[in-house]
Request: fold
Amino acid sequence: MNKWILWAALFCLPLNMHGKTTEDYTGDSLSYLTPQDTIFLSAGSYGQKVFTHIMEPKQTLYSLAKFYGLTLDELYFYNPKNEGGRYGTGSRIKIPIPNRSIIRYKPVDYSPYLYVPIYYVVKKGETMYHVAQRLFKLPIDTIMDRNNLIEPVLSVGHKLFIGWMDVYGVPDSYRQFKGHPLWQKSYAYKRKYYAQKRRKKEYRRKGPAVYINGTKSTSDLLVMHKYAPVGSIVQITNPMKKRTLYAKVIAKTPPAYDVNVEIVVSPRVGKMLGVRDKKFYVKTRYLR
Reply:
């Protein structure tokens, strides 16, 4: 009798393939999201809600991005080590979820076959007010009722039931902005650049660029330029990848660098320009 109970218990346990936990089960070889899945979100570096998807056989980053309403560039922003096809079965891919795709109140046509539950994993220092109202725009009482909480007290790792997501993914139209947060910032800098261009003279340069090392703001769009005024916006183009972005000048290029170096960029700028070497060739434009 005990043997049959043991076999039954083992049969009911989820398999742990590719190092998965129960929080990683999102999709199978045929689908990216199934009715059996649960999405566990956490806060990303730029305020995005992010979860981890484990790649299954036959899944591709292109179709994964499309399923969640992303472009490949957006997916690469959150997963730079997987750019250029460097992924396979078992790869852990971070997926940002737009707020509009989170269904906060139970749909009229609710069915466990049409929607999957979404939980939020509490991080250090987060309060019920922050999670409920700032992150998900929900009343505190609603979150407490859904999670059978008597007091609005949270602890690190606490999993809060927030709402649901459509099992068919995220329509592209649900994304409020195209591009990840720093591309949005680059676009804002671009608008500022062209607004100032009407009353300033534009200069064009080309030459070697290198990464900044050991700065506090390596994840932002910051550069040091030999000629552009400090505090101004510069346009930077990587002609090899045909990528252009706009960044803010925080200082002049220090004398310690090679005299031929035109510009020193933060690692994030280098990643967004698609470069892999510490030294690379760029074209720049700036205003004076």
Notes: Helices lie at 2-12, 61-67, 72-78, 128-135, 140-146, 181-197, 267-272. The mean pLDDT is 82.
